[in-house]
Design a protein that fits this description.
TIM Barrel; Rossmann fold; Immunoglobulin-like; 3 domains; eight-stranded parallel beta sheet; 14 helices; globular
């Protein structure tokens, strides 16, 4: 049974404290009152505090040799931080590092992960942490630490267990465990399967442990560093969901959070977004991101129905950076002002996008998943991501998008057919639409003639498929597609122009693909009733190549399938519009920021992008009594053209909430 936290604070800090044993003056300048007062001044109402760091050191009163060697005797750093927070009504989850424990890896090298070559994790002169094996006795060592911490500081608000990824290992402990489970340690797939089983094993164990120490009540535990596609299996261990994403680091980037929150929020658990105050990444001491960037990231969390968390790292001497908390305080002042229109607000969506469960932790740039975010966000549609799984539930959605990389099972096909028969719309790309070269659903309305022999072809739009101003030319498609034609009763929405030949060493012309030759009989998009089938992986192509005609074609298809979208926006394409709803309010969040790739490894947001007379129409169940611009409290005139209320917005604030009441 899924556990659930009733409410999460909106203004949180994740306070790292990974402090190596070579640091001599740990906690030397810590002052509990100054610490608590700075958090209060920055409007923080929750802070995650460190019991144990990646170095494996402990920061509280304990007889364990893992206690940081330079933490002064008698200083219970964690205990004093907790007490300072409790006196001020600040929630304080406790942080414990899991697979990164340098102290344990050094003192018990037999607990370290072993790769398939028999090598211990980490090179001898590697300036980083060595990874411990959770199938070794380390799992018991960690259980004892968790128990000590919970007993010492109960009642504990929550635990944050970090570095909990699936870690394959060929250690004696792992090999024994795999053999006992009937798995083959020589097989990489079996090693991966066992790694996942190990994680679920310790999740279950630690949940039971802390529940027993918490008078039989569940204690919220967040297991960090897990791929979000594991949520269908792991939601039973959780009371909330956190999404760590420091977007200025391209390990995450600015696509990671919006993709994952649109997925995570469908599981019915409270959600929290986590960014960082750093210019680059964790522990970037002296690096402070621009105010506009932090405003964008926190406002984006609010816009998607999540709470906010900003990552920081305490200086080893125990002092908070005043400039950092001045910045955080300014942003949290805005968050606090927005809270009345964000508390208990639920996202309002219309389109479901199926998400491949074979993906890992990261969002791979240039693939279909990123493409769906960019296309649908830029077109202003309201959408969620759903697991591409047999328990697919499409209730409440008007349309479903299935990209080329989704493998549909017979059960999922049956669900899609029932959805279409009930009046739902389907936009599906080849080859997801095919099995053994034949259409999976008769509703697709296509005849497949095999894969195109050409890597690059050209698209010719019909008059109804091009946006005003679209150049009347044949538009190159860089990705290979299939050859398809419509059946009787179906219509080709766009046609394929094939080149003279594919570019090879034997025959090529000019610098790139061969030019278009003549119009073929094949269709790029076919519609039959409420279903449109695409011959190409358009979403991947848009993510990979950014060719605007791809988005224009997809937009025209969606206009046919969803003729009454929840929002219509007339303004710059970078603007993000999201809808949420409270009991008697519909809230349209409008975000106008434009990240720029200013270095090879980071995107920078330095200022908000002003909007001038940008028009937004929101579909509502009835005429609203009033419209206001929040959090500034300005009354907005609106035009009612059933079922849409239209307003005009001029703003340089970056984040505005247009609230329709009644």
């Amino acid at each position: 049974m899924t556990m659930k936290i009733k409410s999460l604070p909106f203004r949180q800090i994740h306070l790292d404290f990974h402090t190596g044993p070579a640091i001599p003056d740990v906690g030397a300048e810590f002052d509990a009152d100054e610490f608590g007062d700075q958090l209060t001044e920055a409007r923080v109402n929750s802070v995650t505090l460190f019991a144990k760091c990646h170095h494996g050191h402990l920061y509280y009163d304990t007889n364990s040799p893992a206690r940081h060697p330079h933490l002064p005797k008698g200083l219970d750093l964690l205990g004093e931080q907790l007490e300072a927070c409790r006196r001020r009504g600040i929630r304080a989850p406790i942080y414990i590092s899991v697979q990164c424990d340098e102290f344990a890896a050094t003192t018990e090298p037999g607990w370290r992960v072993v790769n398939e070559k028999g090598e211990l994790s980490g090179a001898p002169f590697w300036a980083g942490w060595h990874i411990v094996d959770m199938s070794s006795p380390y799992v018991d060592y960690l259980a004892d630490q968790i128990a000590e911490i919970v007993k010492k500081y109960r009642p504990v608000d929550a635990l944050f267990l970090d570095m909990c990824w699936d870690q394959p290992s060929c250690s004696p402990w792992a090999i024994t465990g795999m053999r006992q489970a009937g798995l083959n340690p020589e097989n990489a797939a079996d090693r991966n399967r066992y790694a996942l089983d190990v994680v679920h094993g310790y999740m279950q164990r630690y949940n039971r442990l802390v529940r027993g120490l918490n008078s039989g009540k569940p204690l919220p535990i967040w297991y960090n560093s897990r791929p979000k596609v594991r949520l269908p299996l792991e939601k039973k261990y959780l009371q909330h969901i956190e999404i760590e994403s420091l977007p200025t680091n391209l390990f995450w980037g600015y696509s990671y959070f919006p993709i994952n929150i649109r997925y995570a929020r469908t599981f019915g658990l409270p959600c929290l977004g986590m960014t960082g105050r750093f210019h680059k990444d964790w522990a970037d001491f002296g690096g402070l991101k621009p105010k506009a960037a932090l405003l964008y990231e926190c406002s984006q969390m609010l816009a998607h129905g999540a709470r906010c968390s900003v990552g920081d790292q305490l200086h080893p001497r125990g002092t908070l950076d005043r400039a950092a908390y001045s910045l955080i305080g300014q942003i949290y002042q805005h968050v606090a002002a927005c809270e009345p229109w964000c508390r208990d607000a639920k996202p309002v969506t219309q389109i479901a996008v199926l998400r491949n469960l074979n993906a890992g932790y990261n969002i791979v740039a240039g693939e279909a998943l990123e493409g769906t975010l960019k296309v649908l966000q830029q077109l202003g549609h309201q959408f969620d991501y759903l697991s591409a799984a047999d328990d697919l539930n499409l209730t409440g959605y008007a349309a479903v998008v299935v990209t080329h990389d989704i493998g549909l099972t017979e059960t999922m096909v049956a669900t899609l057919r029932a959805f279409v028969r009930a009046g739902g719309a389907l936009l599906i790309e080849a080859p997801a639409a095919l099995r053994n070269g034949k259409p999976l659903l008769p509703e697709l309305g296509i005849i497949c003639h095999g894969e195109s022999p050409y890597q690059a072809t050209y698209l010719r739009f019909g008059r109804t498929m091009a946006e005003p101003g679209t150049p009347a030319t044949d538009h190159v498609m860089y990705e290979r597609g299939i050859r398809m034609t419509p059946v009787r009763g179906a219509v080709a929405l766009a046609r394929v122009v094939e080149p003279y030949f594919d570019r090879t060493w034997a025959h090529f012309s000019s610098h790139h693909q061969a030019p278009p030759d003549k119009l073929s009989r094949y269709a790029a998009a076919v519609q039959k009733g409420r279903v449109i089938t695409l011959a190409y992986p358009f979403f991947k192509a848009y993510a990979s190549h950014g060719n605007i005609p791809y988005r224009q074609l997809l937009g025209a298809c969606l206009d046919r399938l969803v003729p009454a979208p929840l929002t219509r926006f007339s303004g710059p394409r970078h603007v993000e519009v999201t809808l949420t709803r409270q009991a008697r309010r519909t809230i349209a969040h409008v975000l106008s920021f434009c990240p720029q790739r200013r270095t090879p490894a980071s995107d920078i947001v330095e200022e908000a992008f002003p909007l001038v007379d940008a028009r937004l129409s929101v579909k509502l169940p009835q005429r609203p009594k009033r419209a206001t611009l929040q959090p500034i409290g300005l009354a907005l005139p609106f035009v009612w053209a059933e079922p849409y209320a239209q307003v005009s917005l001029t703003s340089a604030r970056g984040h505005d909430m247009i609230v329709f009441e009644g």
